[in-house]
């Protein structure tokens, strides 16, 4: 959903047996996430709550129906590559039913949690992966990019130094 320069999205990392279900974005030509590995999710439709969007997008992209999930944080993306701001509701899930389907946005693959950082992922994603794993509290994370380069990360109103990103 877009309005006055903001886009609302969800992103979910589904966990099973020490692995995350990752989406390798390789199928769309015009894709800000092209060739990156991310979770599953997408844009809100009119009238949806974050959970409505989460459940619909996961079902559409994976064929799975979530039965257990946690709202981990709100991630704010700012970039010189687009106008406005993207607000992403970040979830992780550990319960689902159904069977995986082919995704029209990329290739779905279960990846060992410790191998995720070896994949081509956004620098800022490394921060929220750590937060999802290491803390139980809800967080607000602002990530400012110039091109593909993470220029600033602010966690709960406090700027993180670049060492925290690595």
How would the blueprint of this fold be written?
Layout: E1 2-3, E2 6-16, E3 19-24, E4 37-38, E5 40-43, H1 50-62, E6 65-79, E7 85-97, E8 107-112, H2 123-134, E9 139-146, E10 149-155, E11 158-159
Parallel strand pairs: 2-7, 6-9
Antiparallel strand pairs: 1-2, 2-3, 2-5, 3-4, 3-8, 6-7, 9-10, 10-11
Keywords:
single chain, 166 residues, alpha+beta, 2 helices
Describe this structure in words.
The chain has 166 residues and is of the alpha+beta class. It has helices at 50-62, 123-134; strands spanning 2-3, 6-16, 19-24, 37-38, 40-43, 65-79, 85-97, 107-112, 139-146, 149-155, 158-159. Strands 1, 2, 3, 4, 5, 6, 7, 8, 9, 10 and 11 form an eleven-stranded mixed beta sheet that branches. A hairpin with a 2-residue loop joins strand 10 and strand 11. The protein is globular, with a radius of gyration of 15 Å.
In short:
With about 170 residues, the protein is an alpha+beta fold. It contains two helices and eleven strands.
Query: Helices and strands: which structural class?
Result: alpha+beta
- Distance, first to last CA: 32 Å
Low-confidence spans: pLDDT under 50, at least 5 residues? none
What is the count of β-strands?
A: 11
What is the approximate shape?
Answer: globular
What percent of residues are in strands?
A: over 45%
Largest sheet: 11 strands, mixed
Radius of gyration: 15 Å
Spell the H/E element sequence.
EEEEEHEEEHEEE
Instruction: State the helical fraction.
Output: 10-25%
* SS summary, helix count: 2
State mean pLDDT (0 to 100 scale). 89
